[in-house]
């Protein structure tokens, strides 16, 4: 009994002792997470090589004689109201849509984690100030606020990243703060303090790694809503300017013709759904893989 | 003569209770209210008392994990309450803590080598990785664990093993004083003795000084040279453990000791049953804090607070009965 135990230990040590290697191994064995990853890689590939993959130019190749055509051999996804190839537009649209989804989440994460950690860890006056500001933020309808920011900075793609990321910070901040408040009372934090660890060290090494699970979930979920909101902002003329193709704006404009030419909405819709599905699957798997408590 | 390592004088730790619309301070929970004691080099001082009497708060305040409201703490002739933050970090090497709950005292996301290695990262940043891992492996051996465990995570261990890891972390920096906050109360009885014996061995080997906080009187007796009994934020009796267990003087100590079960079939002894509950530390009774439940309560007990004084042979008691 004892000897088998020893052997098992031996094997484990040999396999790896780098937490990242362990996590990656776990991720590789998680089928649904790998499917998610394949989808993300596939979409990234499309975004990078859109210009080689597209049969037509998404903007310049218009032909009003062939508007509103359904899917055919020449136009796999059909054509839109200007006779542009929907497939090419969907492929090109992945560039902006994916970037908006990721970049805006990055903004949300960096603001939300910083402020949430400060509020939860130091409590008192910083907490009071940060949370009151967050409540003020919440009092505005998110979308209206994003519009206001876009107008203030001036329309453009970077504005969209920032505006969509910024409106989400209060939720992320509250999520992190709650976790930090609970974790800072744990004995392992006290142990770190009794070893003489600094506040920064405690926040980054002890507390934040333990808040990852809800952050990963909320981030991957948030990517989809950011893609949709980008569409709405573009529709109002505050995001990427038409005729630049984005999935959101394609759906928004296509909506008017939904009875006659449903393919205008269906294909970008499928693209958005696929992205959301991929990120959610991957996020789920990532959360489990990064948790050392999960069984191998 | 025994050398004093730690001296605590009139230590007070109050927690503010806030409330009302403006969040003003309404009252104070007097968790520790005027505690004085000395700890000698190489000894074990037990602190006992029921839950909420302030024993853990006392331990944490001595380490400055909680800032005291008033009082003095002198460690090796240094007033630690006057130290600056950076000086305090240096001093932390000398004073460590073993925690009560082995399930929450180890960060679940860190490997054992990171948990213990943190001590070296902070206090010996120049030590290279290999040297550090060798040291940690040595520590694991010291506390009776397989050195290969250093690449494992806390959830892979049992409660007793986790507590050993906690002990390894506490001794990593060769401290002089270790405050053990109910180190075995979360463990199975069969494991308790193993961990206590380990603590004993380490004390012999490294000349450690312990402040041992517990509510289990038998455990305290097994380990302590001297024992302090706390009630509602004050020490009511402090003496060496033999005289405390044989001849308790304070009525509260008598009641506590009479509650220890005797491991003899049919063994009986007179129980001193305390009536009522512990009064709230928000608003402790006047005079002697124990007078509401004391069977010898006199008029003076309700008015004047008894002095905590030596009645001979380093036996300190705070009780008006001693004046008679």
Walkthrough of the structure:
In chain A, 72% of the residues lie in helices and 0% in strands. By secondary structure, chain A is mostly helical. In chain A, helix 5 crosses helix 12 (212-235) and helix 13 (247-254) runs antiparallel to helix 14 (263-289). Residues 1-14 of chain A have low confidence and may be disordered. Chain B has ten helices and twelve strands. In chain B, helix 3 packs parallel to helix 5 and helix 5 (159-171) packs parallel to helix 6 (189-206). With 324 residues, chain B is of the alpha/beta class. The longest helix of chain B is centred in the middle third of the chain and has 18 residues, at 189-206. Chain B has helices spanning 55-62, 85-91, 112-123, 129-142, 159-171, 189-206, 217-223, 241-246, 251-258, 299-303; strands spanning 4-19, 24-40, 44-48, 70-75, 78-79, 95-98, 177-181, 209-214, 226-231, 234-240, 308-310, 316-318. Chain A binds chain B through residues 9-10, 12-13, 17, 19, 186-188, 190-197, 201, 205-206, 209-210, 291-293, and chain B through 60, 63, 65, 88-90, 92-93, 95-97, 99-101, 104-111, 115, 118-119, 122-123, 146, 148-149, 151-153, 155, 166, 169, 173.
List the helices and strands and how they pair.
The complex is a heterodimer of chains A (296) and B (324).
Chain A: H1 2-15, H2 19-29, H3 31-48, H4 50-53, H5 86-122, H6 124-139, H7 142-153, H8 157-167, H9 169-183, H10 187-194, H11 199-207, H12 212-235, H13 247-254, H14 263-289
Helix pairs in contact in A: 2-14, 3-5, 3-14, 5-6, 5-8, 5-9, 5-12, 5-14, 6-9, 7-8, 10-11, 12-13, 12-14, 13-14
Chain B: E1 4-19, E2 24-40, E3 44-48, H1 55-62, E4 70-75, E5 78-79, H2 85-91, E6 95-98, H3 112-123, H4 129-142, H5 159-171, E7 177-181, H6 189-206, E8 209-214, H7 217-223, E9 226-231, E10 234-240, H8 241-246, H9 251-258, H10 299-303, E11 308-310, E12 316-318
Parallel strand pairs in B: 3-8, 3-9, 6-7, 7-8
Antiparallel strand pairs in B: 1-2, 1-4, 4-5, 9-10, 10-12, 11-12
Helix pairs in contact in B: 3-4, 3-5, 4-5, 5-6
């Amino acid at each position: 009994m004892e000897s088998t135990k020893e052997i098992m230990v031996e094997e484990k040590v040999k396999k790896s002792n780098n937490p990242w290697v362990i996590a990656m191994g776990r991720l590789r064995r998680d089928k649904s997470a790998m499917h998610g990853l394949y989808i993300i890689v596939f979409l990234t590939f499309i975004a990078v090589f859109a210009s080689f993959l597209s049969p037509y130019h998404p903007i310049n190749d218009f032909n009003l004689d062939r508007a509103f055509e359904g899917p055919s051999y020449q136009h796999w996804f059909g054509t839109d109201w200007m006779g542009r190839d929907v497939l090419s537009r969907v492929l090109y649209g992945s560039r902006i849509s994916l970037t908006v989804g990721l970049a805006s989440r990055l903004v949300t994460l960096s603001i939300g984690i910083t402020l949430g950690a400060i509020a939860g860890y130091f409590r008192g006056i910083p907490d009071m100030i940060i949370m009151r500001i967050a409540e003020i933020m919440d009092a505005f309808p998110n979308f209206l606020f994003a519009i206001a920011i876009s107008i203030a900075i001036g329309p453009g793609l970077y504005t969209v990243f920032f505006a969509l990321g910024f409106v989400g910070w209060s939720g992320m901040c509250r999520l992190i703060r709650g976790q930090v408040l609970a974790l800072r009372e744990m004995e392992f934090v006290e142990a770190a303090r009794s070893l003489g660890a600094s506040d920064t060290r405690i926040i980054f090494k002890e507390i934040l790694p333990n808040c990852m699970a809800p952050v990963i979930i909320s981030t991957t979920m948030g990517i989809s809503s950011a893609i949709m909101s980008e569409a709405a902002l573009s529709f109002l003329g505050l995001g990427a300017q038409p005729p630049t193709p984005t999935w959101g704006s394609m759906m928004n404009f296509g909506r008017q013709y939904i009875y006659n030419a449903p393919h205008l909405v269906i294909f970008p819709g499928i693209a958005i759904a696929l992205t959301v599905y991929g990120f959610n699957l991957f996020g789920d798997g990532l959360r489990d893989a990064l948790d050392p408590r999960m069984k191998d | 003569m025994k050398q004093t390592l730690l001296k605590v004088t009139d230590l007070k730790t109050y927690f503010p209770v806030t409330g009302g619309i403006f969040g003003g301070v309404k009252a104070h929970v007097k968790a520790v209210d005027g505690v004085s004691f000395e700890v000698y080099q190489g000894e074990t001082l037990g602190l006992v008392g029921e839950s909420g009497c302030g024993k853990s708060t006392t331990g944490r305040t001595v380490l400055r994990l909680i800032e005291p409201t008033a009082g003095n703490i002198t460690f090796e002739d240094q007033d630690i309450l006057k130290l600056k933050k950076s000086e305090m970090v240096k001093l932390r090497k000398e004073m460590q803590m073993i925690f009560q709950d082995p399930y929450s005292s180890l960060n679940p996301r860190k490997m054992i080598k990171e948990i213990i290695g943190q001590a070296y990262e902070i206090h010996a940043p120049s030590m290279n990785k290999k040297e550090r891992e060798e040291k940690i492996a040595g520590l694991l051996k010291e506390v009776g664990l397989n050195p290969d465990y250093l690449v494992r995570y806390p959830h892979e261990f049992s409660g007793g093993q986790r507590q050993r890891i906690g002990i390894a972390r506490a001794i990593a920096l060769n401290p002089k004083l270790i405050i053990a906050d109910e180190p075995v109360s979360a463990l199975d009885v069969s494991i308790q003795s193993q961990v206590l014996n380990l603590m004993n061995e380490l004390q012999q080997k490294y000349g450690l000084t312990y402040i041992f906080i517990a509510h289990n009187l038998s455990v305290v007796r097994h380990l302590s040279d001297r024992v302090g009994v706390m009630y509602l934020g004050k020490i009511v009796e402090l003496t060496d453990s033999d005289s405390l267990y044989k001849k308790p003087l304070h009525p509260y100590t008598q009641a506590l000791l009479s509650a220890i079960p005797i491991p003899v079939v049919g063994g009986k002894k007179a129980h001193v049953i305390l009536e009522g509950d512990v009064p709230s530390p928000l608003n402790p009774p006047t005079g002697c804090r124990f007078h509401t439940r004391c069977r010898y309560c006199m008029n003076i007990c309700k008015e004047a607070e008894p002095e905590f004084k030596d009645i001979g042979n380093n036996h300190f008691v705070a009780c008006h009965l001693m004046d008679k």
